[in-house]
Amino acid sequence: MNFSSREREIITFLLNAEKDTTAKAIATELGVSIRTVHRDLKSIEGLLSHYNLELKKKSGVGLHISGNDVDRVAFQQVISNVNIVDFSPEERRTIILATLLEMNEPIKLFTLANELKVTEATISLDLDQLEQEVSLFNLTLIRKRGYGVEIVGNETDKRAALSNLIAKYVDPFEFVSLIKENIQKETTHQLNAISSRLLDFINPERLNIIEKVVEDARDELPYELADSAHIGLVVHLALAIERLQKGETIKFDQTFLQQIETTKEYAIAKKMIEKLEGKLQQSIPEDEIGYITMHLMGAKVRVDQDYLLEESSIDIAFQARSLIHYVSIGVGVDLTNNSSLLHDLVAHLKPAIYRLQQHMRIVNPLLKNIKNDYQDLFQLIQEGVQETFPDMEFPDDEIGYLVLHFASTLLHDRKSDLRALVICSTGIGTAKMLSTKLIQKVPEVKQVDNRSFFDLKHLDLDTYDLIVSTIPLNGFEGKYIQTSPMLTNDEIHRIRKMVNQKKLTFHSKTNNLPFTSANTDKRDMMTDLETLANYSQAVLDLLRSLHIQKMKDNQTLESILQEAASRLEQEERIINRNNIIKKLQEREKLSGLGIPGTTAALYHTRSKDIIKPTFSVYTLAYPLTIQGMDNESMTINTILLMLAPEKAQQEVLEVFSFLSSLLIQDENSLKLFSSGDQEKVKSYLTEEYRKFLLEKNLL
Asked: Which long-range contacts (CB under 8 A, 24 or more apart) does 284-290 make?
């Protein structure tokens, strides 16, 4: 059985998913189009059937691989060992890099091309990209005609590159658990192609011994060792032993080694080496003790209050205080009395400065995300470090770790009330649904304004911290997030990232927001009466327009809209009904109108051809299949139709927005709208709008 690397990636993604996922989420993860994912899913369905598995698709929810655990495990083992037709470019380059780091002699391009089943020209292009990547580790990629290709550099840098590969492509927790399973011959799942190649670097029997030695050392440390640090140390030692087996040794600065010989960490590291020498029957140079000591010193997750009193930490504590003071001024938040931040910084800076003094490289796998998420803070700390440590050069990887310390403190301490702008095509339909979800899921958002795409150019966008839209804002050059009205978990994650960026954006304009009528203590009585009249008229118009109809025939969507528009035209609530229908259809093309998790769809628009606001409900004799707001197909049996004039008063738009929120309030409310009982619906709306006016202090 053969299949492509992309099909394998999709299968792995679905097998690892904890719940239903959408084709859109898979496409985003793989960096391909939704159409491509759908095409691959068709061939994957056939593969699954051979293993008693099924690709289950649920309208409005997503898809997952269904089957019993025995069949799933059997299939996982098959795809890990199956003949892959092709590797992705990233996988191929990773395999090349891993191979070159492992080799102690040049390797021919022909050999690499033959193994990976590509041309030598493709390998040559891959090497062009790898040349820059290995230079980050102070390594050099050498290639000569007739000689081959190899990576040259000192052993310390080669180990750093190998460690980085493992950190980047192998989940360390899964890595160790899989090794244990393999040792016990109880493995239930396999590593992917990249992980398997990296696993070849390490002898599983030796890894088991190393892990036990590290576990014993944890009990001797005066502080807790984080799980990630524990596994990082296991991987480091495993690589060190394997490289020593091949005769590759590292050198540790002897002067610096003397400086750390009196530390608790050195004593523990020395004991670990002695144990390993005995268990592995192998001589290990003293230089390795220095590197293990550095791992232990950099792994402190909790520090006693007395830690700052250690003589070697006093100078670093003073510099850490200076850095905190510098950042405090930059962010406008006083962090100078935050003892937890000070202790964490000292615990991190002490081994970090040792590493920098010894030119030991550290790789921060989160650096790209940190730079994207905390641009302002990254630049501020970079400047602060230059001023605080003028004689040292901190690489971006180290700056990234410092940013995480400050960001964690700031996000915890800074209580932000953010103002969001939600855009949909009309401002009366999906915008309110999205607003309700936004306030529920993102507690920092305290105020949400709903507007239509038409209103965008007339708004002062500087007064908003966040712009979220249910439709693409073509021609809009500002920063915004496009989401579905119901907010998926992925979309919430993207919004939370932007919220965190806003919380860490300094000198924000949000503190100078203009007061709205809702928070003004002294209001003009005439204005109040006019506002009440406008709201009351809008509510009356909506209630008077309420029309609920049970369709009797097996009608198409277009015929239902035609019948609805004809009735409204006869009642002189709209003109040019074909224009209205066309606008509704165009709105549907922008993004689906089915409400996910329900059997209803909300069709809505604003137009100059709409004379009076209207709300209609149509329960269908036979279900229809349409596109949902999450772009997935779904089945509906109820159509909710909301129409408003293009130049409607703000009160009208708010009344309609409130109606939209009622539609998704809970299952019972939507069942009521779908029941066909017009009197019950009108009674329900009358009571809800009474509460609506009371909350606005207008009754």
From this structure: 284/240, 284/241, 284/244, 285/244, 285/249, 285/250, 286/252, 286/257, 287/249, 287/250, 287/251, 287/252, 287/257, 288/240, 288/244, 288/250, 288/252, 289/252, 289/257, 290/252, 290/253, 290/256, 290/257, 290/260
